C-alpha cells in the first residue's frame, strides 16, 4: 500500500477529457500539427530488475504494472520508488501464462493464454476473472492476449487466434464490438473517451467513438507488435524498428503525419503516462522515455549536474546545419554541450537514423531555469528539446523595490512577459502591437503590429512568442536566434483567452477564461501540437493568470472565484482564497505566491513557509499603481507590471530595495519605516555579520536591525520568511540624502543586492498630519480598518499640500495614495492577530515639509476556531501495523470572509504522529499514513492557529493497531462444581487485526480425577472480526484415562503363552496363567466402582490457548512463533 498525502482532490484526467469538446468550443477548427523532422527524447532506466517482464501499463500517478510470464505474476512498481508489489500470481499448471497488461487508477488487468482476464484492485484484493461474463457469447474463447482500458471504465480484450473483440463495461456487461475483425497477431488500444485502434494483418485501423467499423490508417509499419493510446487519442505503434506515433487529428488517426519517436528493435511493449512519457521494456529493464523535453533535478547554483543524453531520430533526410543552445531570445550559459555526443554539423542523416547530444546543466540563479536546444538545417528548424531545471539556493529580495518605467508612449499596455534571459515582451491593447526589449535594454523593438487587442503573452524557452487576442486567437511569432518572424495564428475559437504560459516541458497553456477552462497544447517530441488540446485542472470559474513553480506545478488565478488554484498532475487544490479579482499569479523559488489583484490595484505577496501559505500575513508591493492589467516576475524576484491606467509598464527591482522617508526639515526626524528583506529561495538565507556595509549619507539616517525582527547580524531566514531593517531620517543639510546598504548574505538570486534609505532635507513650512482609524481600538480578526490622514498646511497658508501619503502597517509600507483635497484614506485588510500599529507619513512637496501623525494601535483578537476529527480506523476494529489510516481534521470558524490556515498535528501517546496542512478553501486537513505506532491509544487533532485564528483541539479518537493475534473475552473467574458432577461456562476468542490461524486449548491445575473439555476442541479463525464462542466443561470423579499399554500387555502375554505352552511344564503353565490373569484384573481396575473420587476444596485452574498463525501474519507458523495466551479461575469442588 502506498502512502498518499491528500489535500483537496477535485478531479481526474479522465473526467476532464470527457468534457473537452464542450470546453474548447471551436478551438480545434483551424489548428494544425506538423510532425518534427527530427524527434527528440531522453531516456533513463528507473528499473533494471524486471527479469522476464513482458507487457507493461501505467496509471495516472505513474505507478507501473507489468507481467512476468515465467513466474506467472502481475506486479507493480510504485511511482514513489517503493518495493515491488505482487498483485496476482497465476496458479501453476492451469495454463495461466500471463500475457497482456492494462491499468487505470482503480484496477490492473492481466490476460493469460487460459482464456482469463484477471481484474485486480490496485489497493489490494483478490483477482477476479471478468471474462467469465462473456461466457455466453465467446464461442469457446481459447485464450486472451491483448487488453486495453478507456477512461470510462470499459475493458477491451482480444483473443489468441480469435477474430472477436470483446468489450466489458464497468458494470460487468459483456458485448462484442461490431465492425472489428481480428487475427492471431492483433493488437488493440483505447483512449480516455473510448476511441479504439487495432491491428489486423499488419494494418492499423482507427475506430473513433460512434463509428460502426474500423477505417484503415494510411501508412506502412514494420510489423506491428503493440499499440498504446495516450489521453489525447494519439497511438504509439511498437514495431521491430522502433516506436511510431500516429497523431489523432480531426476525429481520427492520421497516418500521413505519423513519425518515429524512438528507434530500436528491443522493445517488448510500451505504456503511455498522462504526461506523455513513454515507458518501454526490453524484457529485463524498464525505460522512461521523455519526448521533446528533459528535466534536471534541483541543482545547487553554480554546480554542474550530471550529463543527460538527448537522442534525435530523423523522420526525413536532413543535413544538420546548426545546434542552438537557447535561453529564450538569449544564448544559454546554463545548458551546454558536455561532449561525446554524435550529432555533427554538416552530417547527413537518413530517415530512421539517430544522433545524440550530451547536455550538462549549471544553474546561474535560483528557481525555474528553462532553456532549449534547437536543431536546424538549411530549411529551418527541424527539431528541438525543451530543457527544464531548478537552481537551488537562498534568495534575497527587498521591499519596497526600486520602481522605474519600461519604455514609454504606451496607450494601453495589457500583457507583459519575461523570458529566461531577462528579455521583456509587452503588448499594447489599443495600439495593437507587441514590443520586445532585449535583456538589459531600455529600447523597444516592435515585433508585431496590426493585432486585434493583444493581451496576454508568453515567451518559450526557444524564444518563440505567443500572443492572445480578444477575438479568441493565439498567435505565434517564431524566433530565429537573431530576430522575430511574422506572427501567425495557430489557435482559434477560444473564448476570451486570459493568461498564457509555457510549461517546463515546452507545452503551451492557455486560460480559456470565457469557457472556464485551462487548455494544454502539448509539446510532442519537440513540436507543439495545436490540433490536440486537452483540459488541465477543473473547478475554475474564470481562470485568468497562469504560472509554474520550479517543480513544474501549475498555478491558476481565478478572478471570479477570488482564488488561486494549484494543479499538480491530475489533482487540483485551492491554495489561496478571499482575494479581490486576482488576474495574475507568479511563484518564486520558496513557493511564495505573488497575486495581481485588479479589484484593489495591488500585487500581493503571500509567503510560503514551513509548508503553509501565510494568507493572513500578506504584503502589498508596488507604489502608485492604478489600473492593473498583468504582471510577470523574473527568477531573481523582480516584477514587471502593466498598468493600463497610468498608462505605463513598471519595473520593480527588488534586488535593489529603496525606501523613501520623505521631505523632512533639517533638524527634524521622520517616522520610522522598515525596509523588508525576504528569502525567495528554497534554502535557508544566512545573514552576514555585519548584515550590511553602509555608505553615503550615513549620519542622516538611524538604522536598526535588531534580533526582535529576525534581521540580526549573523541570523538566518528560512525559505519564504521575511524580516525588516528599520530606518529614521534626520537630515543635517538641505538636499537629497541617501544611505546605501551593501547586504552580505549567501543569496544566489543576484550577484549584488543592495538596499537604500533616501530622503530630502528641506527648510519649508511644516504640515500637520492627523491620523484616524475606523473602527479603532480592538477589533476581531477579519475586520477591515479604514485609515484616514488629514494633512493641514500651516495657519495662513493659501496653497494646499500635494504629494502622497504612505500608510504603514507595523512599520512597513502598506499603500501609497496621492493626496487630494488634504484628505486621503486607505482600507487596510488582513490585520494579523495581536497589536498592530497603523501609521501615516506625508511625503511633502515643493511648498511643504513632510509630516507624520501619531500612530494608531489596532488590537486584533484572534477568532475562535473549532476542530473536528475523523479517522478511517478506530478501536472498534483493530488493524495490523503498517495499515493505511486516513486522518481528517476540519477547522471551522463562524466568521465569513476569513479562512483558517496553518497546520494540524495529529498527536497521540505524547508524540506527533502526522501533520497536515489546512486547505484554506475548505478548512480540511487530511493525511494518509502507514506509520502509526503499534498500540491502543487516543489520537487528537490539534490546530496550530495562525495570524487570525486561535488554536483548537478536537475530541480524541482511540485507535487500535495491533499485530494479528487474538484476545480472550468473557473468561470466568470462579466456577463451583459438585463432586461427582460437572459445570459448564462459555468464553470467547476474539480475533485481532484479521488474524488467520488455529487455536488449541488445554487446562492445567485441575484437582485429581477431574477433566476439562472444549467445544469446539479447536477454533479456526479466518480473518473475520467476529468473536468465536467456546464452551468449557469441568467434570469431577473422572480418573485419567487408562492407557492402551496398561491393558494390552496382559492380553499380549496370553497370546505369547499359547506359543510357549508346548515347551513349559504343566505346573509352570498353571502359575503363568494365574499371574497374567491377576495383571489383567489390575489393569482393568477403574473401569467401574467409585474409587476415582475428586477431593473437595479450591484449586486455581489455568486455561492455555495456543494459536498457530498462518497465511496473513508475520509470525512464523513452525511452532517457534506460536501465540500463547491464558486465563485462570478458581474451581471450588463441593
What topology emerges from the helices and strands here?
Blueprint: H1 13-18, H2 20-24, E1 38-47, E2 56-58, E3 64-68, E4 73-77, E5 85-89, E6 98-103, E7 107-112, E8 117-121, E9 128-129, E10 144-149, E11 155-159, E12 165-168, E13 174-176, E14 187-190, E15 196-200, E16 203-207, E17 215-216, E18 226-229, E19 235-239, E20 242-246, E21 248-249, E22 252-253, E23 259-263, E24 269-272, E25 278-281, E26 286-291, E27 293-295, E28 299-300, E29 308-314, E30 318-319, E31 322-327, E32 330-331, E33 335-337, E34 348-349, E35 354-361, E36 367-377, E37 380-392, E38 397-399, E39 401-405, E40 413-418, E41 424-428, E42 433-437, E43 444-448, E44 454-459, E45 465-469, E46 474-477, E47 488-491, E48 497-502, E49 508-512, E50 517-521, E51 523-524, E52 527-528, E53 534-536, E54 543-548, E55 554-558, E56 563-568, E57 571-576, E58 582-587, E59 593-597, E60 602-606, E61 608-609, E62 612-613, E63 619-621, E64 628-633, E65 639-643, E66 648-665, E67 673-678, E68 685-696, E69 701-704, E70 716-717, E71 722-729, E72 735-745, E73 754-762, E74 768-774, E75 777-780, E76 785-792, E77 804-809, E78 812-818, ...
Parallel strand pairs: 27-37, 28-37, 66-73, 75-82, 92-99
Antiparallel strand pairs: 1-26, 1-29, 2-3, 3-4, 4-5, 6-7, 7-8, 8-9, 10-11, 11-12, 12-13, 14-15, 15-16, 16-17, 18-19, 19-20, 20-23, 21-22, 24-25, 25-26, 29-35, 30-34, 31-32, 31-36, 33-35, 36-37, 38-67, 39-66, 40-41, 41-42, 42-43, 44-45, 45-46, 46-47, 48-49, 49-50, 50-53, 51-52, 54-55, 55-56, ...
Amino acid at each position: 500500500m502506498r502512502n498518499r498525502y491528500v489535500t483537496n482532490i477535485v478531479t481526474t484526467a479522465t473526467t476532464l477529457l470527457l468534457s473537452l469538446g464542450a470546453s474548447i468550443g471551436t478551438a480545434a477548427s483551424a489548428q494544425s500539427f506538423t510532425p518534427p523532422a527530427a524527434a527528440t527524447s531522453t531516456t533513463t532506466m528507473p528499473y533494471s530488475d524486471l527479469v522476464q517482464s513482458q507487457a507493461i501499463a501505467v496509471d495516472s500517478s505513474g505507478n507501473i504494472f507489468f507481467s512476468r510470464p515465467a513466474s506467472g505474476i502481475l506486479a507493480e512498481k510504485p511511482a514513489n520508488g517503493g518495493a515491488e508489489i505482487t498483485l496476482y500470481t497465476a496458479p501453476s499448471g492451469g495454463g495461466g501464462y500471463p500475457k497482456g497488461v492494462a491499468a487505470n487508477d482503480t484496477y490492473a488487468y492481466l490476460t493469460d493464454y487460459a482464456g482469463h482476464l484477471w481484474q485486480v484492485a490496485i489497493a489490494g484484493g483478490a483477482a477476479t476473472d471478468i471474462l467469465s461474463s462473456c461466457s455466453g457469447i465467446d464461442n469457446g474463447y481459447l485464450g486472451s492476449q491483448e487488453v486495453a482500458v478507456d477512461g470510462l471504465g470499459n475493458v477491451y480484450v482480444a483473443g489468441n487466434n480469435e477474430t472477436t473483440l470483446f468489450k466489458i463495461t464497468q458494470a460487468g456487461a459483456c458485448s462484442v464490438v461490431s465492425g472489428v475483425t481480428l487475427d492471431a497477431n492483433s493488437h488493440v488500444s483505447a483512449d480516455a473517451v473510448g476511441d479504439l485502434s487495432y491491428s489486423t494483418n499488419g494494418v492499423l485501423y482507427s475506430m473513433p467513438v460512434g463509428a460502426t467499423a474500423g477505417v484503415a490508417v494510411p501508412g506502412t509499419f514494420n510489423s506491428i507488435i503493440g499499440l498504446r493510446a495516450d489521453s489525447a487519442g494519439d497511438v504509439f505503434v511498437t514495431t521491430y524498428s522502433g516506436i511510431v506515433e500516429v497523431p489523432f487529428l480531426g476525429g481520427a488517426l492520421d497516418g500521413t503525419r505519423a513519425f518515429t519517436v524512438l528507434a530500436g528493435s528491443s522493445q517488448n511493449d510500451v505504456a503511455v503516462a498522462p504526461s506523455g512519457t513513454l515507458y518501454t521494456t526490453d524484457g529485463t529493464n524498464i525505460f522512461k522515455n521523455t519526448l521533446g523535453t528533459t528535466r534536471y533535478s534541483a541543482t545547487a547554483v553554480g554546480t554542474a549536474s550530471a550529463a543527460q543524453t538527448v537522442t534525435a531520430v530523423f523522420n526525413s533526410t536532413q543535413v544538420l546545419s546548426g545546434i542552438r543552445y537557447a535561453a529564450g531570445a538569449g544564448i544559454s550559459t546554463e545548458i551546454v554541450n558536455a561532449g561525446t555526443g554524435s550529432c555533427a554539423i554538416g552530417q547527413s542523416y537518413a530517415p530512421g537514423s539517430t544522433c545524440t547530444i550530451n547536455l550538462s546543466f549549471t544553474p546561474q540563479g535560483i528557481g525555474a531555469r528553462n532553456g532549449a536546444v534547437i536543431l536546424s538545417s538549411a530549411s529551418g528548424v527541424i527539431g528541438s528539446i525543451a530543457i527544464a531545471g531548478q537552481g537551488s539556493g537562498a534568495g534575497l529580495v527587498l521591499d519596497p523595490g526600486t520602481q522605474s518605467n519600461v519604455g514609454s508612449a504606451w496607450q494601453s499596455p495589457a500583457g507583459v512577459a519575461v523570458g529566461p534571459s531577462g528579455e521583456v515582451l509587452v503588448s499594447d491593447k489599443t495600439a495593437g502591437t507587441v514590443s520586445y526589449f532585449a535583456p538589459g535594454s531600455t529600447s523597444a523593438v516592435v515585433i508585431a503590429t496590426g493585432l486585434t487587442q493583444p493581451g496576454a503573452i508568453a515567451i518559450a524557452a526557444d524564444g518563440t512568442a505567443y500572443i492572445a487576442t480578444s477575438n479568441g486567437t493565439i498567435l505565434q511569432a517564431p524566433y530565429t536566434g537573431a530576430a522575430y518572424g511574422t506572427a501567425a495564428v495557430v489557435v482559434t475559437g477560444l473564448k476570451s483567452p486570459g493568461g498564457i504560459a509555457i510549461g517546463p516541458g515546452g507545452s503551451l497553456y492557455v486560460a480559456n477564461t470565457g469557457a472556464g477552462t485551462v487548455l494544454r497544447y502539448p509539446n510532442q517530441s519537440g513540436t507543439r501540437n495545436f490540433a490536440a488540446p486537452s483540459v488541465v485542472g477543473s473547478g475554475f470559474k474564470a481562470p485568468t493568470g497562469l504560472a509554474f513553480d520550479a517543480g513544474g506545478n501549475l498555478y491558476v488565478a481565478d478572478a471570479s472565484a477570488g482564488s488561486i488554484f494549484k494543479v499538480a498532475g491530475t489533482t487540483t487544490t485551492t491554495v489561496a482564497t478571499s482575494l479581490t479579482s486576482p488576474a495574475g499569479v507568479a511563484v518564486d523559488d520558496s513557493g511564495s505566491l505573488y497575486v495581481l489583484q485588479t479589484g484593489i490595484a495591488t500585487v500581493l505577496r503571500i509567503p510560503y513557509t514551513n509548508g503553509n501559505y501565510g494568507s493572513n500575513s500578506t504584503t502589498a508591493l508596488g507604489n502608485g499603481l492604478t489600473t492593473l492589467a498583468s504582471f510577470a516576475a523574473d527568477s531573481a524576484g523582480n516584477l514587471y507590471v502593466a498598468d493600463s491606467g497610468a498608462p505605463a509598464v513598471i519595473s520593480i527591482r527588488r534586488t535593489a530595495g529603496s525606501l523613501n522617508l520623505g521631505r523632512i526639515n533639517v533638524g527634524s526626524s521622520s517616522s520610522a519605516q522598515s525596509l523588508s528583506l525576504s528569502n525567495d529561495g528554497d534554502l535557508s538565507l544566512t545573514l552576514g555579520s555585519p548584515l550590511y556595509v553602509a555608505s553615503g549619507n550615513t549620519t542622516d539616517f538611524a538604522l536598526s536591525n535588531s534580533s526582535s525582527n529576525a534581521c540580526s547580524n549573523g541570523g538566518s531566514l528560512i525559505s519564504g520568511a521575511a524580516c525588516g531593517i528599520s530606518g529614521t531620517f534626520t537630515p543635517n543639510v538641505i538636499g537629497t540624502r541617501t544611505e546605501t546598504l551593501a547586504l552580505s548574505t549567501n543569496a544566489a538570486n543576484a550577484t549584488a543586492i543592495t538596499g537604500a534609505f533616501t530622503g530630502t532635507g528641506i527648510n519649508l513650512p511644516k504640515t500637520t498630519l492627523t491620523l484616524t482609524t475606523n473602527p479603532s481600538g480592538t477589533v476581531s480578526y477579519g475586520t477591515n480598518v479604514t485609515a484616514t490622514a488629514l494633512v493641514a498646511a500651516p495657519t495662513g497658508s493659501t496653497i494646499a499640500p500635494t504629494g502622497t501619503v504612505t500608510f504603514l502597517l507595523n512599520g512597513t509600507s502598506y499603500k501609497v495614495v496621492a493626496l487630494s483635497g488634504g484628505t486621503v484614506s486607505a482600507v487596510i485588510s488582513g490585520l494579523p492577530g495581536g497589536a498592530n500599529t497603523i501609521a501615516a507619513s506625508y511625503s511633502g512637496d515643493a511648498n511643504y515639509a513632510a509630516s507624520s501623525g501619531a500612530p494608531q494601535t489596532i488590537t486584533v483578537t484572534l477568532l475562535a476556531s473549532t476542530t473536528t476529527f475523523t479517522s478511517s480506523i478506530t478501536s472498534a476494529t483493530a488493524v495490523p501495523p503498517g495499515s493505511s489510516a486516513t486522518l481528517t481534521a476540519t477547522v471551522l470558524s463562524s466568521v465569513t470572509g476569513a479562512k483558517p490556515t496553518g497546520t494540524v498535528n495529529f498527536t497521540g501517546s505524547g508524540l506527533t504522529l502526522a501533520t497536515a496542512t489546512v486547505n484554506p478553501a475548505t478548512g480540511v486537513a487530511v493525511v494518509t499514513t502507514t506509520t502509526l505506532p503499534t498500540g491502543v491509544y487516543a489520537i487528537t487533532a490539534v490546530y496550530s492557529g495562525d495570524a487570525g485564528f486561535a488554536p483548537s483541539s478536537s475530541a480524541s479518537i482511540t485507535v487500535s493497531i495491533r499485530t494479528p493475534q487474538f484476545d480472550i473475552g468473557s473468561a470466568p473467574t470462579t466456577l463451583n462444581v459438585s463432586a461427582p458432577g460437572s459445570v459448564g461456562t462459555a468464553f470467547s476468542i476474539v480475533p485481532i487485526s484479521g488474524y488467520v490461524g488455529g487455536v488449541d486449548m488445554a487446562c492445567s491445575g485441575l484437582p485429581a480425577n477431574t477433566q476439562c473439555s472444549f467445544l469446539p476442541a479447536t477454533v479456526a479463525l479466518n480473518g473475520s472480526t467476529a468473536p468465536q464462542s467456546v464452551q468449557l466443561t469441568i467434570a469431577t470423579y473422572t480418573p485419567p484415562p487408562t492407557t492402551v499399554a496398561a491393558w494390552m500387555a496382559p492380553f499380549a502375554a496370553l497370546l505369547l503363552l499359547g506359543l510357549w505352552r508346548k515347551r513349559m511344564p504343566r505346573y509352570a503353565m498353571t502359575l503363568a496363567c494365574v499371574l497374567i490373569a491377576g495383571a489383567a484384573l489390575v489393569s482393568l481396575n477403574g473401569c467401574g466402582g467409585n474409587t476415582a473420587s475428586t477431593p473437595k476444596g479450591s484449586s486455581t485452574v489455568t486455561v492455555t490457548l495456543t494459536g498457530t498463525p498462518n497465511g496473513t501474519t508475520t509470525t512464523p507458523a513452525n511452532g517457534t512463533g506460536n501465540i500463547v495466551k491464558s486465563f485462570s479461575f478458581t474451581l471450588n469442588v463441593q
